[in-house]
């Protein structure tokens, strides 16, 4: 039985955005960068939505557009940020990219405009399952990117392409040394893990372990502990079925494949997640707090070794796309869609 806690937070509305997708909290703590899908990078300065930077050339539509924003591990010194978005290709194809840019940290203007350092390969038709979440290894040396299956299913099992994969890169976007399929060369040298569907959350826990949060089909959303070289099963297995009702063999039928830490059926349709480390809710430290699109709020999950268990849900009345922890341990969350609000959640 899922525990639901209504009216659990003090909620403060900080600003409103047009289809926000991701945010990054600047070192000052009360300054936040927010991406909007249509191609704008906005800045909440602690009291209002201020600076807007336009990013031209973004293919906006369906699930595509401007996606993630992440501060480089040395941001305070360098002003470098990473952005992901969707670009168009020939013959009605498109794919996600990751770019590196440099900000003037005081004026929040470009010192160096975004330069693409990584691409999904190949570009394909359709406008879904880009994933394009960004994470950095705890030592700050490596860049991890989630690359969705682009609703094409079988590429997730094909090691000659980077669709349906999590890739591990150097900070300049080149393949990192020591990746499990480096000996295959080409795009294969980027791949860290495979058999993924649509990964919209990618985070390291306090132990330095990488986890992903993944959309299933009709059922079967997953939180996975991601290990190098492992096959996470899509589309061979899932704890959900195809949208037309055609069954998919369950994860448990293939013990040779990586098993989810937890799966949901019915789905929660996750946005992003964090591992909470703050002092406002010390009893939650080390647990995952998941932004729920389908569940319309937050989902709290406890980690036990390589498995996980849901602890509670916190309805917020809207689809929640993104979540970040504030320096004081409160939570910043972004609602999904047009007029999506930036909220600060604190303890009552």
CATH superfamily: TolB, C-terminal domain
User: What is the name of the CATH class?
Assistant: Mainly Beta
Kindly report the spatial arrangement of strands forming the biggest sheet.
1-24-23-22
Structural class: mainly beta
Folded structure, characterized:
The protein is mainly beta and 348 residues long. The protein has one domain: 6 Propeller (Neuraminidase), CATH 2.120.10.30. The chain is 1% helix and 47% strand. It contains one helix and 24 strands. The protein has one helix at 75-78; strands at residues 9-18, 20-25, 32-36, 40-44, 49-54, 66-71, 80-88, 94-104, 109-119, 131-136, 142-147, 165-170, 191-194, 198-204, 210-215, 221-226, 262-264, 270-275, 288-292, 297-304, 307-315, 320-325, 331-335, 338-347. The strands form six sheets. It has a four-stranded antiparallel β-sheet with strand order 1-24-23-22, with no helix packed on it. A four-stranded antiparallel β-sheet has the order 2-3-4-5, with no helix packed on it. Strands 6-7-8-9 form a four-stranded antiparallel β-sheet. Strand 4 and strand 5 (49-54) form a beta hairpin. The radius of gyration is 19 Å and the shape is globular. The model has no long low-confidence stretch (mean pLDDT 96).
């Amino acid at each position: 039985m899922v525990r639901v806690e209504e009216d659990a937070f003090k909620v403060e509305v900080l600003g409103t955005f047009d289809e926000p997708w991701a945010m990054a909290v600047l070192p000052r703590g009360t300054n936040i960068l927010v991406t909007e899908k249509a191609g704008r990078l906005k800045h909440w300065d602690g009291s209002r939505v201020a600076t807007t930077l336009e990013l031209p050339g973004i293919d906006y539509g369906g699930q595509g557009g401007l996606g993630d924003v992440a501060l480089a591990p040395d941001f305070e010194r360098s002003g470098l940020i990473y952005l992901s978005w969707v670009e168009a290709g020939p013959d009605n194809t498109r794919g996600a990219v990751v770019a590196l840019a440099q900000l003037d940290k005081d004026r929040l203007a470009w010192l160096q405009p975004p330069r693409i350092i990584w691409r999904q390969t190949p570009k394909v038709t359709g406008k879904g399952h880009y994933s394009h979440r960004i994470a950095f290894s705890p030592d700050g040396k490596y860049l991890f990117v989630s690359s969705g299956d682009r609703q094409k299913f079988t590429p997730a099992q094909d090691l000659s392409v980077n669709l349906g994969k999590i890739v591990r890169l150097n900070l300049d976007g080149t393949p990192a040394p020591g990746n499990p399929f480096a000996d295959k060369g080409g795009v294969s040298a980027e791949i860290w893990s495979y058999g993924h569907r649509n990964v919209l959350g990618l985070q390291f826990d306090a132990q330095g372990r990488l986890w992903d949060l993944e959309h299933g089909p009709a059922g079967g959303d997953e939180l996975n502990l991601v290990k190098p070289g492992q096959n996470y099963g899509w589309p061979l297995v899932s704890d959900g079925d195809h949208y037309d009702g055609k069954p998919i063999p369950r994860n448990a039928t293939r013990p040779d494949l990586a098993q989810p830490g937890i799966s949901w059926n019915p789905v929660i349709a996750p946005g992003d997640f964090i591992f909470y480390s703050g002092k406002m809710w010390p009893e939650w430290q080390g647990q995952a707090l998941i932004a729920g699109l389908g569940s319309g709020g937050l989902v709290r999950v406890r980690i036990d070794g390589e498995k996980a268990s849901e602890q509670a849900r916190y309805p917020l009345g809207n689809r929640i796309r993104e979540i970040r922890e504030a320096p004081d341990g409160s939570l910043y969350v972004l609602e999904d869609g047009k007029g999506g609000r930036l909220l600060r959640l604190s303890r009552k």
